[in-house]
Design goal:
Structural class: alpha+beta
Helix content: 25-40%
Strand content: 25-35%
Number of strands: 7
Strand order of the largest sheet: 1-7-6
Largest sheet: 3 strands, antiparallel
Distance between the termini: 6 Å
Length: 112
């Protein structure tokens, strides 16, 4: 008798854009063939970014962002996808479906 088992895990990452490690992202960009002046441009784009919050007439202190990519920017979603896209290579038994910050993991087992 054959017994089939299927399992799915559905992940929706919170604050996903804020968690991107700059060093890992730069390493992945270099692995993809981005080098020289263009890689330096990305390093400059990611390094020493400042962030403030303004609400009505109140402005927060400026903080240096040590990780993350800008939400609402043109590059933010692209850089995030480059950062997470190789997750599909992390397992030989799981199937992955990725869409933006949503990740679906599937496992199918057939026992005879």
């Amino acid at each position: 008798m054959t017994k089939n088992t299927a399992m799915g895990v559905f992940l929706d990452l919170s604050k996903e854009f804020d968690t991107v490690n700059h060093n890992i992202l730069l390493h992945k960009l270099e692995h993809l063939g981005i080098r020289g002046v263009v890689l330096e441009w990305f390093k400059n784009y990611l390094t020493n970014r400042k962030q403030i919050v303004k609400y009505k007439l109140t402005v927060s202190n400026s903080l240096t962002m040590k990780c993350g990519v800008r939400q609402g920017s043109v590059l933010g979603p692209l850089l995030f996808l480059i950062y997470v896209n190789d997750i599909t290579k992390s397992s030989q038994i799981l199937s992955f479906i990725l869409f933006a910050d949503d990740t679906n993991l599937f496992l199918s087992l057939i026992k005879t």
